[in-house]
Amino acid sequence: MLWIHGIPGAGKTVLASFAIEHMKLYCEGTTNQKYAYYYCHYSNGQDESLPLISWVVSQVCRQLSWAPSQLKQLHDRGCEPTLSELQYVLELALVRLESLFIVIDAVDESTPRDELVRFIASMALDSRFRKVRILVTSRKYWDIERFFSGISTSISMKNRYVDADIERHIRSRLNSSFRLQRWRDSFQEIEDALVGKANGMFRWVDCQLHSIERLGDKTKLVSVLQDLPPDLSETYVRIFDAIPDADRQFVSRVLLWVYGDSRAPWSVRRAINAKLLLEAVTFDLYGSVPAGGNGVFDWDYLQDLCGCLITVKNRDPLTDAAACSITLAHYTVWEFLTSSHILSTRVSQFAVSTQAVYRDFATSVLRQALSADPEGEGTDWRRDRDAYCLVLGCALKSDRYLQTPEDLELYFRFLDPCNPHYRRFRAIQSRALHSPSDRAYRFSILKIPAEFRAPEGAGERNYMAEVLLNARLLNDWMPGEHAAYTTHLPPVGRLPQHEIEELGNQRAAGIFLGLDAKARDQEIGFDGKVWDIEAPRRGSRIIQHN
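Structure for Nephrocystin 3-like N-terminal domain-containing protein, as requested:
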C-alpha cells in the first residue's frame, strides 16, 4: 500500500486523479488487471467505508462484464449489504484477476473516518486481498498514521518534485491568464516570490495569483509580493477582508447556497447551476426574482467577488451562467468559515455554524418553493430555480434541516396541496419518471400524489388529512408506527396525539403518477385511509385501498 500525505492545498487530489488516469491506461486491454477509485469528500458527511467497497465492487464487476450470483442475491434481498458481505463478493471477483489497483483520495474527509481507516488497513493486511494494490491520500493526521505506518510506504507531498511542479504551475498560470498579461514584465519576480513561500501548497499559490489578477494599482505589486500571507488561513482572512461591505451579504449567501447544495440529499453529488444560484441568492436578499431572466446580480459580479472561493465547471461559454456550475473551490474554504480561528479575526462576520447553515438553507429552499409560479413550465431541477426547490423540498425531512417548530410549520405548508405551488409537482414528476439516466426516480418527489380529489361519496376533501398523507409518505412512516412520530405532526392543525390518530383514519383520494408498460405517463388512483395508502412502486399500474 502507498500512503501519500500532505498539508491542505498540496495537490493530493490532483495527484490522485493523475494516478487514476495512468492506472486506466495501464489496465486498458488487459483481461486480468482491473482498477477502481473512490473520492472521499467532506460534503458527503458520512463514514465512507460502505460506499467505498460498494463502488469498488461495482467498478470491478462492470469491467469484468460479470457479477457473481451472490451479488444478485444481495440486490434481490432489497436491503443494504454489510461490509463483510461486499468483501466476500470482491473476494470472488479477485479469483478472475491477477491484480486490482485501487486509488482512495482524501481519507481524512470521511466523517467519521475511524472505520474507513480500519477497513483500508484490514484490506492491506488480509491475505484474501493480496492481489489488491492500494494508493491512499490524506492529511498526515496521527490517527491515520497510527494505522498506516508499518503497513504502507509513506510518501510526503513536501519534496523537491512538488516544488518543481509548483514552478511549472505558476508559469502556466502566468502565461494562460488574460488578466495576468499586464504583469508580463514582472513574471519572474512574481514566480520567484510565490515559489519561495508556497511551502508545497498549490491552493495557496492559486489564491495569490487570483489576488494579483485583480490588483488595480500596478505600483502595489512590489508591496504585495513582499507581504504575502504565510499560510492558507491568513490568505482567507485577506480575501474576505477585501470584499466591500456592501457585497458581504451577497458573498455569504452564495457560499451558503453552494455548501447547502453540496450537502443536499440528492442521489449523486453535483454542483449548483450558476444562473440558478444567482436567482436563489437574489430571492433571499430581495424577496423576489425579476421576470425575464434579468437578475439583480450577473455572472461577472459573481466571479469578481467569489472567484477564489468557488470553482466554475463547464465553462462553455465563459460568460454564460446558465452553462456553468459552481462548487466550493476547496474544502479549506468551509473549514476556515466554520473554524474557531475566524472568530478572532477581522472577518468574523463571515463565521458560520454548519448546523445553522443546514437550517438556513432548508428554510430558503422551502420559502422559494412556496413562491413558485403555479403557471410556470420549468421542470429541469438542475437549471430551473422553482423546480430545484420543489424537488429538494421533498427531501428535506430530517431534523438536520427542520430544527424548530417554525421550520416544521413551513414544511407542512410546503406539503399542503391547497397551496398554488403544488400544481407544479405533476409536470416535474413526469420528467423524473422519464429521466432514468439522471437517477431522478430516486427523488422523494415521486412518493407524493400528483393530484388530490374528494374521496368517493365524501363530497369534499379533508385538507389536513392530505397534508398528513404527504408527510407520512415522504418520511416513510409505516402504518402502526405513526405514534412515534407525533413530535413532527403538531403543525398539522396543532392537534393532540389522539386527534392525529383519528386524522390518519380519515380518507384521502387522488392520483399518483407512474409509467405504463409502454413508458407513458399513467395515473394511478388511490382512495383510502391515510394510514393505509402507499405510494406505488415505479412501474406499478394501480394502487387503491377502500
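Residues 278 and 302 are 8 Å apart (CA to CA).
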